[in-house]
UniProtKB/TrEMBL annotation:
Coiled coil (residue ranges): 705-733
InterPro entries found in the cross-reference section: DNA_methylase_N6_adenine_CS, MmeI_hel, MmeI_Mtase, MmeI_N, MmeI_TRD, N4_N6_ade-DNA_methylase, SAM-dependent_MTases_sf
Gene3D superfamilies from the UniProt entry: Vaccinia Virus protein VP39
Occurrences of domain MmeI-like N-terminal (ranges): 11-171
Keyword entries, A-Z: Coiled coil, Methyltransferase, Transferase
Protein's UniProt name: site-specific DNA-methyltransferase (adenine-specific)
Length: 952
């Protein structure tokens, strides 16, 4: 190994360092140095295509999921090319290489962007003989590389040391809040010490003196903290050169009398290189310093940089880079700079501030890119733009209902500013464009008390932000009452009546985030992956897509980083139009994310077959079998139940026009689905015949006629005025038509009752429902327009309609009404394919399973006085349930009737069948219409008598 590496070093020294001409041979020899025959034999690819929206770039080398290499000419300043290689790495999602290397023939800069932003290592060519273990990932059989700047390792080590101090303080009775604040002040002081904001090693020397018995830690630390909060400099002593910090953190110095062991542990922590610690340490401290019970209650955890970037990149970085790329004139760039200064970011569940930290850092980099472009393209006019940084941490806002998290987040952002200043200084030195960049003042610290609030975001007004990001608390609907208490939940449900009460906790953040977005604003949130399903989806992603939102980048499901053992969905969306393709990442059978470029991302974040292309089937449309119920149009047609029963008792002839009237709510929410009213229905009768029923006729005449006459006259006047202005104007006549037949319902549905007159019962469901529940209803009961009516009386057809096949088709094809799914026959029924050639035995099995399902429902409802809604709500709960078994038996029987495979996608099979039937119809071939199939000879065998009947 040493010999091959030395041979590589000698060979490279003979090269001129030409990026175009010698990069490939350099890469090939590098692979040989680490034991391969060459790059090609190892399976690497030169000039690998990296596609973006408008063009294709070429990375110098990609070796699977191991490494990405980008070469630059000899002497090139490698840090200035970090953005390029990061962009290449980012666009290789979801199967990005672990490591990325920038090389200029003389030096290697190694990154692992998934865990940290800074390089893991920088190795000069001549150091390779001694430092080759940093390239252990290049070996044929990779081993763990040894890096000198692994911030994750340093962060974990330092966090562990601080956590030990905290645990010791708690064990001996120090108040939790006091211990947290003391350590937060201490941690910031250790950072400040290594970032030259304090005199060199001042905090470390205090601890060392105390450890040696040369001073008391309480007095010395108190003196330092007080001076950091004092605008007036000390006139002498060890704190003479300590500057004023402010920032709110030291407004209340919190020294604690430390034991000798605690001083030793804190000294050990202080001796570490804190400028090598990733600010994610604050997330670690946050989690480590909280008990397991509290952490579970509020979903606290810390997050990898890669997972944060999955939100920050599409919602902040990409939109801004597109704007900068489109800016062609100085005027354009000045306008962007103005917009940048007013740009605001909100994290309404900010926790330790990790999302805000990364968002701030990346926005500062966007600012550098914009300034760089101005000074390169308009050097003569750049002076009028100025070089003072305008991006401030004051543009970043957050909320959390844990007070320590709030303080932690403030400190994280303060550190973000100091680190950004350091990075900016290095950037200016590196690019050497002569930009006289005006650095921000590091001290005093910005006071973030008005930016980061201790508040429950769900009951607090949000600022008007351009982008909303974050990772709301995880809590399932099943555990919310146990964790938060019924009082809080009642408050939550009352405040958010449109969000289903069984939705997961994070759903409320999605809902409120979309409510607070301005048109053109972006949001990116992490949620439990149940936001794609049922009630949680209804309150979050359905609400977003139904109210002007467009999901443009999402991960359907992935395991989350940190200690929280949970699978999440990551959703990025905008309110308003979004130009371009959308990116959805879905796990394959090997649990690896795969990228799909789509025209639209649905609210289930799935690759579920798109059934929008399903064909309308003439065999379903004609003869018409599905109807909307009657629209009465005036309360005067309705009669209370007791009054209606009295009318029928007085004169039995009235039963011909006074009918029980069933609405959707009553079908599912009343015991035995009992109607609460009657309707006076003269639909098929002229005025002479209607008058032969004197009592109901006079009731309608008294209440309905005056109103219809008034509305008809009003409409006539409007029509006359419209026609006077334009003789060809289209006018409305529905009120006039209602008046001409004032004794009849607005829409009596003659065609419906013509069909129902031949049936003893019909199938009905509520027209608006998240999950439709179907039931047989007696033909003696008139359906209201809140019901959908299916004019079939056999158990087989009921079984098909109540099965998962039809429910799934409904969920994909339905429209919405105020956010609720609505049964629309033209999109659902007219396209839904029935089994085409079922065997008689399978038809019987469906009919039997359907009847047994209804028998099971009725048995449960009778025993417990439940309604249909009650038992189907219980059906959604986990655990064994006889009704669940009955539904499964029905679904199995229906699949057999279709001849579908259980392991194949049901929607896909239904869509294929739809296409097949449509094709046969077009060719004039015979197909099976909805209803009992041709193989059934004795139809009475499939008709039973159970149905909803009016009870006195």
């Amino acid at each position: 190994m040493i010999d091959s590496i030395n041979n590589f070093i000698k060979y490279v020294s003979t090269l001129d360092g030409d990026e175009k001409g010698e990069a490939q041979v350099f890469c090939d020899r590098l692979f040989q140095a680490f034991g391969h025959d060459g790059y090609k034999e190892a399976g690497a690819t030169l000039e690998f295509r990296v596609k973006s929206k408008k063009k294709t770039n070429f990375a110098d080398l990609l070796w699977g999921e191991r490494v990405l290499i980008e070469m630059k000419k000899k002497g090139a300043q490698l840090p200035s090319h970090r953005t390029q290689i990061f962009d290449y790495w980012w666009k290789l999602r979801p199967n990005q290489p672990k490591y990325s290397i920038l090389c200029n023939f003389n030096e290697f800069v190694i990154y692992d962007f998934a865990i940290q932003d800074e390089p893991l290592d920088r190795i000069k060519l001549e150091e390779l003989e001694d430092r080759y273990t940093a390239f252990n990932f290049m070996l044929p059989k990779a081993t763990t590389p040894i890096f000198e700047n692994n911030l994750e390792e340093a962060t974990r080590e330092t966090a562990d040391l601080v956590a030990k101090v905290f645990n010791s303080l708690i064990e001996r009775g120090v108040e939790r809040e006091r211990a947290q604040r003391f350590l937060l002040q201490s941690v910031f002081t250790m950072f400040a010490e290594d970032y030259q904001l304090l005199p060199k090693d001042i905090f470390t020397k205090i601890l060392l003196d105390s450890h040696k018995g040369l001073g008391n830690a309480y007095d010395l630390i108190a003196g330092l903290f007080h001076q950091m909060n004092n605008k007036e400099s000390a006139r002498g002593g060890r704190f003479k050169e300590v500057s004023y910090f402010n920032g709110g953190l030291f407004a209340k110095p919190e020294p604690i009398e430390l034991t000798d062991e605690e001083v030793k542990m804190l000294l050990n922590a202080s001796s570490k290189l804190w400028n090598k610690v990733n600010p994610a340490i604050f997330g670690t401290i946050f989690q480590s310093s909280m008990g397991a019970e509290e952490r579970h209650a509020y979903g606290a955890h810390f997050t990898t940089e890669l997972d944060i970037l999955k939100i920050v990149h599409p919602t902040i970085i990409e939109p801004w880079r597109e704007k900068i790329a489109k800016a062609k004139t100085l005027k354009d760039m000045k306008q962007l700079r103005k917009e940048l200064a007013g740009f605001k970011v909100l994290d309404p569940a900010c926790g330790s501030g990790d999302f805000l930290y990364v968002a701030f850092r990346e926005l500062k980099r966007v600012e550098m890119e914009l300034l760089n472009k101005i000074h390169i393209e308009f050097p003569k006019s750049a002076g009028e733009i100025g070089t003072q940084s305008i991006v401030s941490i004051k543009q970043f806002h957050g909320m959390d209902f844990n007070p320590f998290a709030v303080e932690l987040s403030k400190v994280t952002l303060m550190l973000a500013k100091e680190i950004a200043i350091k990075e900016t200084r290095e950037w200016v030195d590196t690019i050497q464009t002569g930009i006289p960049f005006q650095m921000e003042e590091t001290l005093p610290l910005d006071n973030m008390d008005e930016n980061i609030l201790y508040a429950d975001a769900l009951f607090t007004d949000w600022i008007e932000a351009d982008v909303i990001v974050g990772n709301p608390p995880y809590q399932s609907k099943n555990k919310m009452q146990e964790e938060y208490g019924i009082e809080y939940l009642n408050k939550l449900w009352n405040a958010y009546p449109d969000v289903p009460g069984r939705a997961d906790y994070c759903v409320y953040w999605f809902y409120k985030a979309h409510q607070n977005l301005n048109n053109g604003g972006f949001a990116g949130l992490v949620g439990t992956n149940t936001i794609r399903q049922n009630y949680s989806r209804e309150g979050s992603l359905d609400y977003i897509t139904d109210n002007g939102g467009v999901i443009f980048n999402a991960i359907s499901s992935q395991p989350w980083s940190g200690d929280a053992v949970v699978f999440v969905s990551i959703v990025n969306w905008t309110k308003g139009d979004f130009q371009g393709k959308k990116r959805l990442y879905v796990e394959d059978k090997n649990d690896e994310l795969q990228e799909y470029i789509l025209d639209n991302i649905n609210s289930s974040l799935s690759l579920q077959i798109d059934v929008t292309e399903a064909k309308v089937l003439d065999c379903n449309k004609s003869p018409k079998k599905v109807f909307q119920g009657q629209t009465h149009g005036h309360e005067g047609f309705l009669v209370a139940k007791m009054e209606g029963l009295e009318m029928l008792a007085k004169n039995k002839v009235n039963h011909k026009v006074v009918k029980p009237f069933l609405i959707g709510r009553e079908l599912v929410a009343n015991e035995k689905s009992q109607p609460e009213r009657f309707v006076i229905d003269f639909t098929d009768k002229d005025i002479i015949e209607a008058a032969s029923f004197p009592e109901p006729y006079e009731m309608v005449k008294k209440s309905v006629l005056p109103d219809r006459e008034a509305k008809a006259n009003e409409q006539e006047e409007k029509n006359q005025k419209a026609l006077e202005n334009n003789s060809k104007a289209k006018v409305n006549k529905h009120h006039i038509n209602f008046y001409n037949k004032w004794w009849q319902l607005s829409y009596g549905r003659k065609d419906l009752f013509k069909v129902l007159s031949k049936l003893k019962r019909y199938i009905a469901c509520s027209r608006v429902s998240a999950r439709p529940i179907f039931e047989f209803v007696s033909s003696d009961i008139n359906p209201n327009d809140a019901l959908m009516v299916f004019a079939f009386e056999d158990n087989y057809t009921f079984g098909i309609i109540q099965s998962q096949a039809h429910i799934l088709w409904y969920q994909e094809k339905c429209s919405s009404m105020k956010g609720d799914p609505r049964y629309t026959p033209n999109t659902i029924w007219d396209t839904f394919p029935f089994p085409q050639n079922p065997k008689l035995a399978d038809v019987k099995k469906v009919a039997v399973a359907a009847k047994k399902l209804r028998e099971m429902r009725n048995k449960i409802m009778d025993k417990h006085n439940y309604t249909l809604r009650d038992i189907y709500r219980i059906l959604e709960e986990p655990g064994a349930n006889p009704l669940k078994d009955a539904h499964q038996n029905l679904d199995d029987a229906v699949l057999a009737a279709y001849g579908f495979g259980k392991r194949k996608d049901l929607l896909s099979q239904l869509l294929d069948l739809n296409f097949e039937i449509a094709n046969k119809i077009e060719k004039g071939e015979e197909v099976q219409s909805p209803g009992l199939p041709k193989c059934v000879k004795n139809k009475k065998e499939f008709v039973s008598g159970d149905c909803v009947k009016m009870e006195n």
